[in-house]
Every structure is written in structure tokens, then in C-alpha cells.
Specification:
The structure is a single chain. This protein is an all-alpha fold. Among the domains are: about 70 residues, Tetratricopeptide repeat domain (Serine Threonine Protein Phosphatase 5, Tetratricopeptide repeat); about 55 residues, no CATH class. Helix content is about 70%, strand content about 0%. It has 8 helices and no strands. It is elongated, with a radius of gyration of 38 Å.
């Protein structure tokens, strides 16, 4: 005679098979997902995220592209306040000043950048280039020549930095051409001035002679 297991025994067996050994423990809840941080990850040291300095530089760059010069200068000023001895902030500020036509202010910013550039040969090259260029714009031609010489020497001493060694010889030649033209033009002006003075003197003399007749 075949013996059948009671129904409740079969149910218990099914439950024991389906349930893990640690049936008495409550199932572990899935860890709640951490919300994604809003905006870029920030880190004052700039290691695990963007630093306040570079965040301000990025903000200034975006404003500069959008031709918002006031906004760009404000952002670059924030960067400079954050890291006053970081040459990049002063370099970018000079670019904003240049776009506003403030040549003297741009020059001052780049001179500060040059002092803080340190061993950053690539950034130093950028600063020396724009300083030489702004001297030309200001028509300080002798100073421009000296600055192009400085840029040329830096380019030769730092072959790994991206530079334009063909630029200084070309710019210095143009400067010499301008100086020559200015000299020649000055001589022409002097001759014209002298001839006008002579003509005025003759006219006055002729008028006086006519009055005495």
C-alpha cells in the first residue's frame, strides 16, 4: 500500500527548498542611490573636481566668447582673488582688457603674469609674446624690439614649449621699417615746416613793401 505524505508536509518541503538557509534574516534592502551632485564636482585643491580658480576662469572664458567683457573681467577678478599668484588669471585678464581697447591695463596684467609664470615655460612664452605685441600697438618700438628679443631667447631655451620662433625676426624687421619711415617722414615734415615759414616771411615782407609804396 502506497503512503502519501500529508499535503501540509509537501508545502513545508517546498518552502524549505525555496527559502535560503538564513531564512530568519530580513532581506537586505537595496542601497538607495545617491543623488547626482548638481553641476560639476568641486574641489578646492583641483584634484577630485574643479577648483574655484578654474571654475572662475571657465566662466570668464565663456563670457569672453560671448563678448560679455564686463562679465569676463568680473570672473577673472574672482579667479585672481582666489589664487593671486597664479599667472593664468592675470594673463586672461589682460586678454579681456585688450578686447576692450585698454592697452595699458592689458600690459599691466601681462607684466604681473610674467612675474608669476615661474617655470611654466609654455605660459611664459604666451605672456612674452603678448607683451611684445602690445608694445608695438602702443608704438613703443624700441621696447617692442627688446621684448621680441626676450621672446626669441625664451623660445630657443625652451624647445618643448609651443612657440613661434619665426615671428620675432619678422616683427623686428617691420619695426625697423616703421622707424625708418618715421625718420624720413619727420625730415619731410621739417622741410615742409621750414618752407611754410619762409613763404610766410616772404608774404609778410611783400605786404610791407606794398604798403610803403
Amino acid at each position: 500500500m502506497t503512503h502519501r505524505a500529508p499535503a501540509f508536509a509537501l508545502i513545508a518541503l517546498a518552502v524549505s527548498i525555496a527559502t535560503p538557509a538564513a531564512a530568519g534574516k530580513k532581506p537586505k534592502k537595496a542601497d538607495a542611490e545617491e543623488p547626482a551632485p548638481a553641476g560639476p564636482r568641486r574641489d578646492p585643491q583641483g584634484v577630485k573636481g574643479i577648483s574655484p580658480f578654474w571654475e572662475s576662469i571657465k566662466k570668464g572664458d565663456d563670457a569672453l566668447v560671448a563678448k560679455d567683457l564686463a562679465g569676463a573681467k568680473s570672473a577673472y577678478q574672482d579667479a585672481i582673488k582666489s589664487e593671486p599668484q597664479n599667472a593664468m588669471g592675470h594673463y586672461r585678464m589682460g586678454e579681456a582688457e585688450l578686447q576692450q581697447g585698454n592697452l595699458k591695463e592689458a600690459e599691466a596684467s601681462w607684466q604681473t603674469a610674467s612675474r608669476f609664470a615661474g617655470q611654466n615655460a609654455a605660459l611664459k612664452a604666451k605672456v612674452l609674446f603678448v607683451l611684445a605685441d602690445v608694445s608695438e600697438r602702443l608704438r613703443a618700438l624700441d621696447e617692442a624690439t627688446n621684448r621680441w628679443n626676450g621672446y626669441e631667447d625664451h623660445a630657443k631655451a625652451n624647445a618643448t614649449a609651443k612657440t613661434y620662433p619665426q615671428t620675432p625676426p619678422d616683427r623686428k624687421k617691420r619695426i625697423e621699417d616703421w622707424k625708418k619711415l618715421e625718420t624720413e617722414y619727420g625730415a619731410v615734415k621739417d622741410r615742409i615746416k621750414q618752407r611754410l615759414a619762409e613763404a610766410d616771411k616772404k608774404a609778410a615782407s611783400d605786404a610791407q613793401s606794398s604798403g610803403n609804396r
